[in-house]
Design goal:
5 helices, 150 residues, 6 strands, elongated, alpha+beta, three-stranded antiparallel beta sheet
């Protein structure tokens, strides 16, 4: 591992422990030349996941797209960043546990929508209105009624 300060290639691990998410290892390192310390994270490499879009185009999975959608839905709502990250982590876990190399964007959208529903009702309606592409006020009201009936 190269030192980020002096670019020397000889660094030593001085401490190793699980990261907070328990899905990676946090390593404290020290450079043999400049003696500066830095932290690295080691994570298991996952199978590259391909998303099949509505128009049948395929693209690589991008966590930031889910994050952006959930952040927009939760804008000005009493939902913390940690809650959003936990939601996205849970969605990712479900996706990767499927063991598929290709997953439909509709499957991912439904997973996200179900998790957002448990998080915040207003955020859910916002997310659903974009995801389900409500065409008029009646379809929007139908979705609101479903939320209110629960």
């Amino acid at each position: 591992m190269k030192c980020p300060y002096c670019n020397h290639e000889n660094t030593r691990v001085i401490d190793s422990r699980p990261a907070e998410d328990n899905n990676s290892i946090r390593r404290r390192r020290v450079c043999d030349i400049c003696s500066k310390r830095f932290t690295t994270y080691e994570k298991v490499e996952t199978i590259p996941l391909i998303i099949i879009k509505k128009d049948n185009n395929r693209e690589a999975y991008d966590r930031s797209k889910i994050e952006a959608g959930v952040l927009r839905a939760c804008h000005k709502r009493p939902v913390g960043v940690e809650q959003i990250n936990e939601l996205i982590d849970a969605v990712e876990t479900e996706i990767f546990n499927m063991g598929e190399k290709e997953v439909s964007s509709q499957v991912i959208g439904e997973l996200v929508m179900n998790k957002v529903k448990d998080l915040d009702a207003v955020a859910y309606v916002r997310f659903a209105s974009v995801y389900r592409e409500f065409k008029d006020i009646n379809t929007f009201m139908d979705e609101l009624k479903k939320v209110l009936d629960k």
